Structure formats: structure tokens, C-alpha cells
Amino acid sequence: MSTDIERLLAEEAADSESNPDAPFAAGSTISRPNRARSTVYSVRLNPEEVAAVQALAEAAGLPASTLVRSWITDRIRAEHGEVSDAETELRAAQLHLAHLQRHLSQHAS
Fold it and tell me: Does residue 9 lie in a domain region?
């Protein structure tokens, strides 16, 4: 990206953040891709569970809510028989590898 574009983007971002209640410019398109997922479901977790979820999400490079949502949707699909055995095994292997990666990175530091 050119320096001019980067500078313009930084200026626009700063302007936007400095006045979050400003009206949208004419012709702007507003997008809310997750609007269909408008229901919030609250669960209670103890501090250790929250820390564990956050650590797992960070290791996966995802927001914690995205990770938890994926766990829920994966389980729903499995309960409805929408997941193949190969997909289940692959998911388990991915989780195991992520765990090993976290374990190794903790011991490397």
C-alpha cells in the first residue's frame, strides 16, 4: 500500500474515532454481516474458565466470542449428524495440535 493511502486511511480512522456520533456521509453503505446472529446468549464462567477461553482464542488468532460460537455450532452440527467422522477426527487433531503448540511455546520462554 502506498504511503499516501496509508496516511489517508490513518487520518480517516482518527477522524472517525474522534467523532463516533457523526452522521454517515451520503451514499455510504452500512454493513452488519452478523446481524442475523442478533441473539446474545449469556453464560457464567469462573475466572479460570474465562482465562482458559481467552488463551485458547488468542492461540487460535480469534476473538473469544468467535471461538465459543464455533464450539457451539460444531456441537449442534454433530448432534444433528451433519459432521462426518473424518471432519470430527480432523477437528480433534487441530485442537490437539493447538494444545501442543501452546504447551511448547510456554516451555520455550
Answer: no
